[in-house]
Design brief:
Order of helices and strands: EHEEHHEHEEHEHEHHHHH
Mean pLDDT: 96
Oligomer: single chain
Strand content: 5-15%
Largest sheet: 5 strands, mixed
Number of strands: 8
Distance between the termini: 18 Å
Number of helices: 11
Low-confidence stretches: none
């Protein structure tokens, strides 16, 4: 069969893992995933930045990752703030990755909370990639207590893009035949490897969507963004052989 790659990403990892720890310590406590809450910073000094946020903090109060805690408190004065526990996060990460490695050695861990998995090596166990992804997602939730998104495609960049679609606890495909429908309408900033400065440059050039990048002349992009321009053109067209 053709190569199938999964990108598996823990939803709001630091917040999820802290929530699990707090509930284990006190089962009667409120699940911080269900209230306006963040990980990071200090309420008294108002120093630090937001490392992770709950859905209500994001959707109701428009709190963003990496923004100053002082700003977040202005938006939501009753915000719950939990200090990070990196030793705990390391333990949860090892549990997460260890499970994936129990399925296949064809794993590439790219951070504490995300991995690529070559589904091709375990395809015979499942009727479809979607079934395999559902098994992984359901096992992690039922055994470890946190949710993941799984992106499915034929290469890493498209799998990564797919896992960043609607969250949390979702499975999405983004095969080459689906690129135009599912990806090209998205703003350039959402394309993997497109930073803020590159997105601003592209907008200045009249390029606003991923589809605009895909339809541009790669030489034109290279002239303005050097080698990154060619990389973005390849990614926008779903090309990645890494």
């Amino acid at each position: 069969m053709d190569r199938i790659i999964f990108h598996i990403d823990v939803n709001s990892a630091y917040l999820s893992w802290s929530a699990i720890d707090l509930l284990q310590a006190n089962p009667d406590s409120v699940d911080i995933r269900t209230i306006p809450a963040i990980i990071g910073g200090n309420r008294k000094t108002r120093h630090g930045i937001v490392l992770a946020k709950s859905l209500s903090a994001k959707n109701t109060y428009h709190i963003h990752t990496a923004e100053p805690v002082a700003n977040a408190l202005k938006k939501c004065p009753t915000l719950t703030i939990i200090p990070p526990d990196h030793d705990s996060y390391s333990r949860h990460s090892k549990q997460f990755v260890g499970f994936l490695r129990s399925l296949t050695s064809e794993i590439e861990q790219v951070s504490v909370d995300e991995c690529y998995l070559d589904y091709t090596s375990i395809a015979s166990r499942f009727s479809s990639p979607e079934e395999g992804a559902a098994y992984i997602r359901n096992y992690i939730y039922s055994h470890f207590g946190f949710t993941v998104n799984v992106g499915i495609s034929s290469n890493k960049v498209l799998a990564k893009m797919a896992s960043d679609f609607e969250k949390p606890d979702k499975i999405h495909t983004l095969f080459p035949s689906e690129i135009e429908k599912k990806m090209w309408h998205l703003p350039v900033r959402t394309l993997f490897f497109t930073g803020r400065a590159a997105a601003q440059k592209l907008n200045q050039l009249g390029i606003y969507t991923i589809g605009d990048i895909a339809k541009s002349n790669p030489d034109f992009l290279k002239a303005h963004l050097n080698s990154q321009g060619v990389t973005l053109w390849n990614y926008a067209n779903g090309r990645d052989n890494s």
